[in-house]
Amino acid sequence: MAVGKSELATILAEKTGQSHRQSLGFINAFIDAVGEKLAEKEKVQLTGFGVFEVRERKSRLARNMRTGETITVPATVVPVFKAGKALKERVK
Prior knowledge:
Blueprint: H1 5-16, H2 20-39, E1 44-46, E2 50-57, E3 60-63, E4 70-73, E5 76-83, H3 85-91
Helix pairs in contact: 1-2
């Protein structure tokens, strides 16, 4: 079961003593800030949590499963998250 943004805001509100609305605002601001930095191709590193970064995927050949036709998948930039050591240990 996944925890959504609203449920996460409720948890943060309980832990910080802020209102649900303030916590939701913080989450939205965090997502916007990380997105902006990734769009600028900058790395966002949160010690103990992990690293958000962008990676470039090269163009490649793939096969259309229905027709068997070979197609070219264009190069693209994708966001990536790598969990930090403390987060990995906590999940174990």
